Amino acid sequence: MIRLLQKNGWVLGLVALMVLLFVMTKVIQPNFGASGIGALSRAALPFAFATAGMAIVVIVGGIDLSVASMMAVAGVASAALMHALGNEGSLLVILAVLALGLAMGAINGALIVVTKVPDIVVTLAMLFVWEGVALLILSAPGGSAAPALRAIITGPVSVPFLPEAITAFIPKSLVVLVVCLAVVWVPLSHSKLGLWIYAVGSDPLAAFRSGVPIGLTRIVAYALCGLFAALGGLSLTLSTGIGEPIPGPYLMASVAAVVLGGVVLGGGVGGLLGPIIAVFILRILRMDLTLLSVDPNVSAIIEGTIMAVVVMFGGLVALRGRRA
Amino acid sequence: MTASVTQTPILRRVGNFLRDNPVIPLIVLLLVLVAVLQYLRPGIVNERWIANTIKFAIPLAMIAACQTLTMLTGGIDLSAGIVATVASFVMATQVPLVGVGPAIAYAMIAAVLVGLLNGVGVAFFRVHPLIMTLGSGLIATGCLQVYQRLVIASGSSVPEFLTWLGTGRWGVVPNAMIVFLPFAALILWAQSRTGFGRLLYAVGSNERAARLSGVRAWQVYLALYVLSALIAGVAGLLYIGMIRTASLSLANALMLPSVAAAVVGGTSIFGGRGGYGGTIVGALILTVLGTLLTLLQMPEGARRVLFGAIILAVTAIYVRLTDQG
Q1: Interval B260-308: pLDDT, tens
Q2: Is ipTM beyond 0.85?
Q3: What is the pLDDT of residues B236-259, one digit of tens each?
Q4: Handedness of CA B55, B59, B65, B67 (dihedral sign)
Q5: What pLDDT was estimated at residue B1?
């Protein structure tokens, strides 16, 4: 039990912080309840997906600067598709967007492996490329979201045999997030591939000498990042109802959440749970600033400063780790 | 025996040559692009066109100087475009309030503050410059939006001499050359003939070795990022003289081409190799390429894809060449 606590100390600390922030929110806004949690969870959805993708590539020892641009591509592609197909094509849209995400991520990974150019440079270049692709698909915000798909992430879940007073507090978007992450991450982290991802992140040379196919592992990690980015883009389109070709602030936010979530920049350490909780912490902070009626531009500065501080702190931690 | 033995040395020799003299093939490329342009639209290349091309290349080349200098140490400055915007916006909005001199001083102070933030993050917290400058750029954009609300009533104006600098020309020589020539000469001289310039190369080639030989790397980084922000600030003032209207995203569009200009100009994004000479030609190449793309009516999206692909391709080629050398 104590070992379990020690091993998950960081995550437990984050959970405590999140609970504290919820209490604070309740103090600031006494009638904060089910609908507040629903809105929070829906707003956090794209951030959470972006962060999950970023966490996987950071664990494998890289970084993906193109995550926000890939989200934009997936967002406008899904908006355009849904506009053309309507409700009937919902399943097709989901499959197409997932395939698109996997393809974009795999291209990023393959370019990194083939050209031997560092991740940070390749994904910087790809940031511009995907941004351009998004603009080619839709040059201005447009398209629309299918109502059938929008219903998936709006409102609370309804579970038989449970009173509505309880289910009202479980938003559908949270269930979607948990299911999507679990379907990919739980089997992965228990498989050989998951082990390889951590091995490559901790020490590529040692992994190579133990027979791990480094190139393949990297490509898979980036493809998964693309997959999550695509889910993020899709959920963004679903919650706003429109496709936006200009990437949102998801890059910095995801790096900050990954660092705050206990994944060390440099690779090999951490999981998905910490970063996802960190996303909610950052979102609650944002919500509290709004509830305190702080000027949205000022709260953008505060948010940016918090993220910069978190990333600086992460740099310091990584530096300590290297010296030790 | 002949094929395999002779092929490698030729490749290697070409590689070494390109690495040592990136400016020569770049100038050839520039002339080829101009020739293509002249072929597509005969008569376009005249005195006025040349002056305009140089005029638009100057702010780009100055912001690319930020990229070149930071890349020499293995960094990058993604906040440079935003810093240029901040400096120009602060200057334009302060002129009606406090006059030209203090307005420019305020603009430079704002630029230096962002540079200091970058420098502190990179030097003391060892955050990767890419992430640090991206973050500081976001913060600066937020601050600019708040600032805009405060000065919304005062209006803005661009001083006479900046418009003269930005728009005037004397034959094929735009007036902005008065600023750019000394600036370029200073950077070219500083990068190879001063201690600071050599420290940039030393830290970029091998930071550990530099540190062990007594270089205080943090001083280099701090000075470098402040200098980079200052250059970006001056570039912003020149650019607003050219555009003549203050806006919240004035020079942000120069960001991507500036990285491309430095990379195309032969500066290695990994540090330790390159210089400002190549960057200047790189900026000219990108400006001509921009005209060419406009002529071909290429949409903005395709343009970004192309620029990204250029950065990646050139970097990949440099990696290949240096592996062989």
Answers
A1: 899 888 888 778 888 899 899 999 998 998 888 888 888 888 988 988 8
A2: no
A3: 999 999 988 888 888 888 888 898
A4: negative
A5: 42
**CB-nearest partner of B138 from A125, A132, A304:** A304
Q: Does A80 touch chain B (CB under 8 A)?
A: no
Judge whether A46 lies within some domain.
yes
A126 to chain B, closest Cα gap in Å: 6
User: Residue A304 is inside which H or E element, if any?
Assistant: helix A296-323
**A:123-152 residues touching chain B, CB 8 A cutoff:** 124-129, 131-137, 139
Q: Which residues contact A242 (CB under 8 A, 6 or more apart)?
A: A79, A141, A142, A143, A144, A145
Opening angle at CA A182, ends A179 and A183, nearest 5: 80
Question: Is residue A166 one of the residues assigned to a domain?
Answer: yes
Is A232 inside any structural domain? yes
Which residues touch B204 (CB under 8 Å, ≥6 apart)?
B71, B72, B73, B74, B270, B271, B272, B273
SS3 content of chain B, % helix, strand, coil (to 5): 80, 0, 20
Mutate to test the interface with A, among B130, B141, B312 (most CBs of A within 10 A): B312
C-alpha–C-alpha distance, residues A150 and A154, integer Å: 6
* A32, A169 contact by CB (below 8 A): no
A248 touches chain B (CB under 8 A): no
pTM: 0.83
In a domain, A270, yes or no: no
How far does B285 lie from chain A, in Å, by closest CA? 18
CA distance B225 to B222: 6
Domain tally, chain A = 1
Q: How much is the average pLDDT of A13-30?
A: 87
Range of the domain at A198: 40-247
User: Per-residue pLDDT averaged across A260-264, rounded?
Assistant: 83
- A·B CB contacts under 8 A: 127
- Under an 8 A CB cutoff, do A308 and B130 touch? no
Q: 1.20.1540, 3.40.390, 1.10.3470, 2.40.128: which CATH number matches B22-324?
A: 1.10.3470
